[in-house]
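Course exercise 7: structure representation. Students receive a sequence record and must write out the corresponding structure in token form. The form below is the worked example handed out in class, using cAMP-binding protein (233 residues). Read each field label carefully; the graders check that inputs and outputs are placed in the correct fields and that the protein name is recorded exactly as given.

STUDENT ID: A-19
EXERCISE PROTEIN: cAMP-binding protein
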Amino acid sequence: MKQHHFTLDMLKQFLYFQDLTDEELAQVYQISGFRTYRKKSVIFHEGEEKAAIYFIYDGLVKTYKTDEDGHENIVSFLKQGDMFPHATFFDSQPYPATAEALVDSDMIVIPQSSFEQLILAIPALTKKTIVMMGGKIRELQQMLQQITGQDVQSRGVAFLLKIAERYGVEQSGRLVIPVPLTNLEMANAIGTTRETVNRLLNQLRKQNIIEKDGSKLVIVNPQALSDWSAEQR
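STUDENT ANSWER:
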């Protein structure tokens, strides 16, 4: 993995910081650190006292909650440019989920208390935070609608379309999804069993809509997947 020397210009990559003045960026830089997390390493555990906010400079992260039987329930997948966790501002609650690096990942790390002081001191950050939290609420509402209003196959295809839109890299009309997602992780994300996901993916493979390329999922025919989803409604 390429080694990075943390500079102030790295902060400008993040949409969250793009409206700041040079002086305000310097304030952020002064309280920030830079860390590398190796593949499969845990960044923080659910229930731990929260200590920092993370900005992904390079890499992929999953967040998940663990049920009483030890099963992972996926909360989100996060990529370059994302920040997390979102539900931890201005309260004393612990981390709401576990965060794990899916690949070697570089992150800008800002102490929680210092970050909260910046949000209050810099109007541009205050506005960005309000807009971001509103977006997260809408995402949760959409997720709840999918879980309660769709059958398993429809949820599965909706999940594939969502990660394709967010992470897919177009290559010759196909969408390559670089997220190393297992069938069990997908099952946990949509609230079903691995066997059900296996059947769904096999069905889509037989129709030449998707295929596997090592650990990567490839949407061979994005339009066919979208049409397939519409037919299930």
